[in-house]
What does this fold into?
Amino acid sequence: MKQSPKDKMIKTSPKKKEIKPKGKEVKKEEKVEEVDKTTEAEVEIVEPELTAKEKKDVQVIQKVIVHDDAGNPFDKLSRAQIELIKTQVAKGATDDELKLFITVCRNAKLDPFVRQVHFVKRWDSKLGRDVGIIQVGIDGFRSIAEMSERYAGSDDAVYKDEHEETLYKEVIKLPGSATVTVYKLMDNGERYPFTATARWSEYYPGDRQGYMWRKMPFGQLGKCAEALALRKAFPKLLSGLYAPEEMDQGGASADPQAMIESAYQKAKAMINRAMDKKGLEDLKGKVDGSKKYNATQKKDLIATIEARIKELK
It folds into this structure.
């Protein structure tokens, strides 16, 4: 199906642009500038929906990872399915990192496509490179606990020391702490409570990485407290597993070169899945004039665009 210009997969933002609403006059002094404060045109990538074939491949992957206990799951996947995992739920993963990720998913019976478990890249300043980290979402924690057949629910988080604080030039109401109690059925049939407390001062990751914490401060801290309590109740099942919210405060500042490389890899993957030939033709000029990529990356991206256009003819 032919896409309209609004549906182009990759679009660019100009430095300045005057926006005039239809049917209304805009005075010269009321020019609206885009919020893009960068000095270069940046390529924004919009991920397309999965094709019918990719949706079928996802179902195969889910069956292999979550339901099939026999053999090595990595060996049961085609190269195309492996690449699909990398573009959808394990961006930037090497084959070795992906093997570990899939193994963890299968051992814990977690489905990465429903966000029970996450693969993320974090900059390691000691190693001087990105390293793959596996994080389990709070729904994944609950799922693992439930599979033990000993999980007996939990209470809502209890928040204390609520106060207002200025974060990133915003006055926000924050919890000083969150306490969650989860319950486990013991051998004698007793429903036993396990309680843990997470404190804002220990988990807030700072202004640069704290957008979601400022948007949903109670929810974020509550997830940390629940993950702590679940690890206390089910140490054999959850030891060494951490929720993304718990890891936010340990994330080092991003390495600029690593971010550029990641954007380049993502752009290349999206080009290979593009279906709009006109959009790809337009993209060639945008990539060539962009300051976001180095000469080698530009040459490779343009070659990838031309190859994709040929495939669509």
Q: What stands out?
A: The chain has three domains: 5-48+274-312, 49-137+243-265, 150-240. The chain has twelve helices and ten strands. Residues 4-46, 252-259 have pLDDT under 50 and may be disordered.
